[in-house]
Amino acid sequence: MQALAMRAEGLEKVFGEGDVQVRAVRGVDLEVAPGEVVLIMGPSGSGKTTLLSMLGAMLRPSAGRVEVDGVDLASLTEKKLPAFRARRFGFVFQDFNLLSALTVRENVELALNLAGVTGRAARERAEELLRDLGLGERLGFLPEKLSGGEKQRVAIARALANDPAVILADEPTANLDSKIGHEIARLLRRIASEEGRSVVIVSHDTRLKDIADRVLWLEDGSFRTMSDMATDPVCGMAVERDATTPHRVNDGLTWFFCSTACRDEFAADPDRFSASAEVV
Amino acid sequence: MRAVGAHVAVGRRNLFLERRRGLLGVAGTAAALLLVLAVGAVFDGAMRQITSYIDAQPAQVFVSQPGVRNLHMASSSVPLDAVDVIEAVPGVTSVDPILFAQDGLETEAGRRLAYVIGYEPGRPGGPAELETGTEPAGAEIVLDAATAASLGVDPGDPVGALGTSWRVSGLAGDLSNVANGVAFVRLDDFAAARELPDTASYLLVTTDRDPTSIVAAIEEATGLEATTHDAFARSERQLVSDMSVDVLRIVTGSAWLVGFAVVALTLYAATRSRLRDIGVLKALGASPAALSRVVLTQAAWSVGAALVAAAALTVGLGALLARTSSPVTLALEPGALLRVAAISVVVGAAASVAPLIKVSRVDPASVFRR
Questions:
Q1: How far apart are the first and last CA of chain A?
Q2: Contact call for A114 and B290, based on CB within 8 A
């Protein structure tokens, strides 16, 4: 069985004491496999940001534990947490959070500097990542000159700089229009599928369900219902793993489809699609 | 050691992101440092000049009234009889009396305080060289060139001094300082003007031996004060320095306080305006040491740029003053610049304390908040 990229057990976070005590997160368990996209949704004030902060080693839990790449975050001293964050996590924020005084390349280079990569090595790695994301012509631009989509791509390049196992994204599409938001969503999906990184997204954006392997609903600090998603092997769309969804059993495996058309296409040549599709 | 350019220069770039604020901060600090450097340079320049008359004299020993070891604000009287006594001291080659008074030189253009020295033309005690004109004859006076320029007089013009009117016969090389000009008249004219027939103010002694070897002999023979040339000059500088030190301390202390306030405010404002960036850096994995480097880099740039600007302005101001007839001279000593640089480092570090505390308290999780 493949090792988990991230595991949280019994996570709790309590703020304040006595009458003003607030339990922002209550007994949350979460396992994220390499290459998996997990979408955490929920109403405002449900504890999503607090949960993400604990998963990202920015907030100590009041109880429970978080393991990333087999390392228990509680075993790390305050002094070691920054370096661990720099190397194991990539962060994508709603407001992009690019440093406005630095150019596009420098924003990515900075993340490398924080992990101990400096000089030419950092510059070349930054340029490579940005070119891969279609920003080769923007290397010397300041963030204020970029569109929203470009800024978020720079942020994603920064998140990928140190080859992290886990990407944590907080409302990555919130400040983007529909088309660009869809592009960013597909980019995050690609990062998970092609590079084997785990992506945990906190968002209100229901469009992100299309790219998520799992959708979790957080309310009042704990997960209420969980629904698994399957991937249509023909078109790659995420579909509910549900009896009402078009599906077919082939070689003992149940495949779910977005439509009967995809189901029929699969049935015509199952070997063509089942060899490359993810088995969930 | 990290190579230059190995890291992205976050501190510097953030400091000058808002260019106007960054430059204003540097300008304010530069103004404070300019005051410190300029006041020090004026003082050092004055110290160089204050003994220009003494330094120009060939005499190796100055004989004066007991207890007197300088010219400035001193009153010294020695009997002319002592000349013969001193000439008899083994090793003494010549003895030349001078009369000395601090008096106001008056012309139609104004008044200026000066050392007025009566000497025997052709003998030690007068100007080392003349820029123009001749040594004074009867009822004539030689002025230092800067004093003459400030009074608007040329050779041939009248000047009032010692209660008498004199005709300018020549101009001497620059002997004046910020406080006094220097003027020369004949010894007998001076004595007549002040009714001092049998006294001198100082006796200038030359010797063919080590001056320290005849000082004791002169004092024993005459009962007067004998001081070597170097000690006399040193004493003169010390007196003026002692008179000025309190004022200097107040002025430079005030300037340092202003400089500290400007640097501290600039750094604090720069940090406060970029707190979200600090949160992002922490979230991305910046260590406390890395964040401290950001703040300290900003302090170094603020203070360093200001120091360079202030030093350049001080040198420029000195060059400008040298083109005028002002008796003020700015002498920027390397030691003074190093001292100011060292104190600037301390000021920059102290000004970084509040921003460092602010930075340490930023919660990295705050980057998730809108």
A1: 13
A2: yes
Question: Could you tell me which residues are beta bridge partners of residue B323?
Answer: none
B 259-278 → A contacts, CB under 8 A:
276-277
* Residue type, position A200, single letter: V
- Other CB atoms within a 10 A radius of the CB of residue B170 amount to 20
According to DSSP, residue B69 is labeled: -
CA distance B103 to A259: 112
Nearest CA in chain B to A60: B365
**What is the CB-side half-sphere exposure of residue B240 using CA atoms within 13 A?**
22
In this complex, is the C-beta atom of B361 within 8 Å of any C-beta atom belonging to chain A?
A: no
Q: What is the pLDDT of residues A17-73, one digit of tens each?
A: 888 888 899 999 999 999 999 999 887 888 999 999 999 999 999 999 999 988 999
Measured between beta carbons, the chain A residues lying within 8 angstroms of B281 are: 99, 110, 114
Helix B275-284 and helix A104-114, axial crossing angle in degrees, nearest 10: 50
User: What is the C-alpha separation between B178 and B330, in angstroms, rounded?
Assistant: 10
CA geometry: angle at A76 spanning A70 and A78, to 5°? 150
Q: For the whole model, what pTM was predicted?
A: 0.72
**Beta carbons of B286 and A114 less than 8 Å apart:** yes
Residue A229 forms beta bridges with which residues?
Answer: A240
Choose the mutation target among A46, A53, A55 for the interface with B, i.e. most B CBs under 10 Å.
A53
DSSP, collapsed to helix, strand or coil, labels residue B132 as strand
Q: Spell out the residues 6+ positions from residue B182 whose beta carbon is closer than 8 angstroms to its own.
A: B52, B53, B114, B115, B117, B127, B143, B144, B147, B172, B175, B176
